[in-house]
Specification:
single chain, 381 residues, alpha/beta, Aspartate Aminotransferase, domain 2, Aspartate Aminotransferase, domain 1, seven-stranded mixed β-sheet, five-stranded mixed β-sheet, 14 helices, globular, binds pyridoxal-5'-phosphate
Length: 381
Amino acid sequence: MTKYNIETEAVRFSKDHADKGSFNVPIYQNSTFEQFVPGQWEEFTYSRTNNPTEDALRKTIAALEQAQFGVIYSSGLAAIGGVMELLNLGDHVVSMADIYGGTFRYYGQIAEKRGVEFSFVNTTNIEDVEKAIKPSTRMIFVETPSNPQLQLTDLSALSELINGRDILLVVDNTMATPVFQNPLVLGADVVLHSTSKYISGHTNVVGGAIAVNSEELYNRLKFLRKSTGTNPGPFDCYLTMLGIKTLPLRMKQHQANAVAMAKYLEESDLADNVLYAGLQSHPQHELAKSQMSGFGGIVSFELLDEKHIDAFVERLQLFSLAVSFGSVVSLIDCPAKMSHKDIPAQQRTEHGVSNSLVRLSLGIENAEDLIEDVEQALTNL
Ligand SMILES: *Cc1c(COP(=O)(O)O)cnc(C)c1O
């Protein structure tokens, strides 16, 4: 579908969608566009429906995901909401248990009230997914790798499992990014992103995106976006496209830093339970190698004592405490108290998000500097 490899596509697309010799798509800061004949619509009408800056981003996301169609949203959660709007009263969803906290909150406090039912499953085990499927199941929703536990779901196996059934396989690909994984190629029906993370990459945008191959799904999602008003602003689209130009380059450095950090932590006596799919010790290392072309830039681990979390965070100089990940700057999150606090404590611990778990989002700084920083913060806690 795309002519070039992703590194080339990432820098070419803006030029291909710009005119007047520009290397960047302009910011069309318009609400409405002039029409010429009543009832006869020009390509662009009103920015809640479509906008030329957004249109270029939409095509770019589709190209990066090797998809036919893209839809852009005001946030990752707006994209998730768009997918949930595809469901009807009485429909059942099988969701991965280790799911993003905001997605979990959406399920329980919005979708369930509209009569959608959920089952939570450890999707690393395909048999458990099979057991959870009912006649009313219309969607399987996974993140792979998941967050914060870095669990992988075998997408080809899942897609084979639901082949021929009226069930959509939805994959949140925010962690892997299109640089390391293309879920549609592995058989998913819908791939979605929080572009607030790696795709924009500079902690300056909140945005979301979906890519699909089915024209029917694309039309329904576009209709839902227009009807619920979850469109992005053109300036955010512009910033996101600027970020995409260096996405493949950044991912290489995020990953190199993550590999170095994971190896350091695994060998250290000061850290426990280091989670990173790039480590030989990760139970799904082989699946990671077959389904992804890289392991990503997030490493989670447990401190030896949960009481030390605050002191550890305070001592760090190069990791800023923040929700979110995927920035050029290194970040640290304490899932139980921050990104995943909306998941009830019991469910959280049952699924392995302990109070001593921390999640490092490795930026693009120098690996030795980052390791030294973590080492000094862990020593004599
Ligand atoms: C951040 C995130 C979201 C939500 O995206 P926003 O842009 O913050 O609305 C969804 N899924 C995952 C995996 C995320 O990390």
